[in-house]
């Protein structure tokens, strides 16, 4: 297994550790959770860089890397929903988009098409989602981030890019399926 794929697997393994930390009742559990989330999010940047640099881009990485990203963000958001800090509707929008895009990715592959690379919209969406989750984790009496409006604005921006990148990906998927069917 390549280093890039090991980093993706490591990100997936960090998700239950992140969740366990958030369930443990100790004073800085949210800060520790934010650090774990940040480390996991950074492996997303690192695994792609390593795969390209070492020329070890693989089908496993193309499929599992975005799934790992989705699982991480969904885990963080669902904790915020459970704590009453994020409306369920916001989590539903994000989870629905991620499931639909994963389904479209499978349709494209099943038709013989190529995996569609993440666009700048998708990358921006992921970054905004990650920053919003970290902000939400840190907003409670830590680093003076008690201003709920900052975190809400970040989450709203993430939601806008979630929908926008989802529509963009759906259009690219339809194009890819059409091209694959034409062959």
The average pLDDT is: 90
The whole-angstrom Rg is 17 Å
Largest pleated sheet = none
Oligomer: single chain
Number of helices: 6
Query: How many β-strand runs?
Result: 0
Helix content: over 70%
N- to C-terminal distance: 33 Å
CATH class, named: Mainly Alpha
SSE pattern: HHHHHH
Shape: globular
Indicate how many domains the architecture comprises: 1
User: What fold name stands as the CATH topology?
Assistant: Four Helix Bundle (Hemerythrin (Met), subunit A)
Report on the architecture of this protein.
With 183 residues, the chain is mainly α. The protein has one domain (3-182): CDP-alcohol phosphotransferase transmembrane (TM) domain (Four Helix Bundle (Hemerythrin (Met), subunit A), Up-down Bundle), CATH 1.20.120. Helix content is 80%, strand content 0%.
What key phrases describe this protein's structure?
single chain, about 180 residues, mainly alpha, Four Helix Bundle (Hemerythrin (Met), subunit A), globular
């Amino acid at each position: 297994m390549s280093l890039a794929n090991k980093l993706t697997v490591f990100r997936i393994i960090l998700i239950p550790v992140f969740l366990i930390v958030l369930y443990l009742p100790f004073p800085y559990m949210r800060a520790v959770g934010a650090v774990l989330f940040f480390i996991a999010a950074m492996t997303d940047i690192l695994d792609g860089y390593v795969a390209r640099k070492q020329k070890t881009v693989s089908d496993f990485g193309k499929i599992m890397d975005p799934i790992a990203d989705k699982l991480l963000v969904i885990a963080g958001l669902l904790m915020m929903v459970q704590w009453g800090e994020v409306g369920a509707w916001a989590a539903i929008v994000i989870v629905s988009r991620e499931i639909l895009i994963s389904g479209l990715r499978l349709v494209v592959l099943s038709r013989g098409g190529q995996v569609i690379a993440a666009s700048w919209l998708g990358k921006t969406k992921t970054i905004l989602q990650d920053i919003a989750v970290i902000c939400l984790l840190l907003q409670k009496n830590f680093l003076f981030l008690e201003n709920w409006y900052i975190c809400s604005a970040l989450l709203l921006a993430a939601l806008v890019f979630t929908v926008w990148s989802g529509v963009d990906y759906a259009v690219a998927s339809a194009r890819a399926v059409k091209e694959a069917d034409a062959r």
